[in-house]
Amino acid sequence: MPKSYTANTPTCRYSFGIVLWELASRRIPWADLPGDYLAFNTKLNEMLKKGIRPVIPGEVTVHHTAFVAVMKRCWQGDAGDRPTFSEVSRDLAAILNSPSDGSP
Question: What pTM value is reported for the model?
Fold first, then answer.
């Protein structure tokens, strides 16, 4: 019988931060890395170990500060510092319900 899966691991929360980045930037993360599987994974692994994260476009940083803060919390280097999905959900709901996040 398959083991049940909980989507609340630190890795899942990091990955969700990448999804938020994709939504905000409308880009493919790490698109400039080598195309073949082994080279891509080797380079990405090296970058992540160094704490390198995707560059957040300036217009996103300026206009969506609360959203960027949630994204960055999901990317914390110390997995224990990443928010739970309950916290992420609460924070995103607060952003949606706020009159303005600095957005035009």
Answer: 0.80
